Amino acid sequence: MANTAPVTLSELVVEAEKIISDCFGTGGSASAGSTGRTQLSNAIDAINQAQGSIEVFINWLRYQTARENFWRTRGKNGSLGEQVYKYAEELRTRDSKNAAQNLTYFLGFLRRALVAINYLDKIPAQLRGGESQ
Question: Which of 4, 79, 88, 99 has the smallest number of Cβ neighbours within 10 A?
Fold first, then answer.
């Protein structure tokens, strides 16, 4: 069953951290370095320049996945590019009017999670799974 709940900033943060942890491991064991930070900054620029079009962003994501190993980094739930694509589609399905803005926030949180990868397991998310840790 599809998620029909309103998209919240907390959800975007948790999803971003889950994807980064899946693809790169908590504790930074497979950190993507400066290439990853640059690619995520470029992703934020791409959605901002897409004038609200998730399709334009997905077109950019396909192109970058073909060019950059960063987007092909695999986790248990698929490559980084695949997981970002799936979540972008989910955001569009759940709230098409605000999908581009939510995707922009999500990509920013994804970049923060990548930069903070060494601390994702040391400073636990308070809202992960709805449980306080």
Answer: 4
